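Data availability (excerpt). All sequences and predicted token strings are deposited with the supplementary files. A representative entry, Crp/Fnr family transcriptional regulator, is shown inline so that the format can be inspected without opening the archive.
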Amino acid sequence: MYEHFSIPGESCRIPFADLCRRNSEFRTYFIRKTYDASQCIHPQGTKITSFGIVETGILKAVDHTRKDAEMCHAYFEARDIFPEFLYFSGEKEYSYTLAAEKRSTVLWVPVQVMEEMLEKDRQLLYALLLYVSQRGLKNQLYLNCLNYQTIRERIAYWIVGMHDIAPAETIRMPGSQLMLANMLHVSRSSLNQELKLMEKEGYFRITGHEMQGWDKEKLEELV
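Structure token line:
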């Protein structure tokens, strides 16, 4: 007989990172560290001993080609956690180099503590499942963008996809235009030019780090 798994509806609205930080029972085990821009936090091959929660700034997962060109695989912004995919898939070491893209603060939670927290708190476990699911959908979205040839098509597909993953009136832009350019595999200058043209043509409005008033029907015509 399986035990009924019940989760309060309100728990869906609280991000995993926020639930973790509110945990009073295990808070004394958390360690907060700040890193300067471009600082290497964990070289590839470092043993995974803690989960990280980004509080401020941006981190990136990178490796280098034979010609020492940096290849960025993922970014971690505020409220993101890592390296959940590696750890829960059985990896014990970082498969990439973790570095700070900007000055960043990270809250570190030892893996043994995180496991105990998840075992005791079903609301936290459910929030983690939601986070991992959304992160996976976003990663797949960026991969699917590469099926489109033009920058305009990739932008349109990204906007529609982000809205489908988390429906809202606004879409939060990445922390920098370079981040979005890397995710879409285009140059920053080309992306900037196309965003300005599309905004002028009424596809959307960009205010600060938010994209608003997009015309979904018009965007879907591009993809």
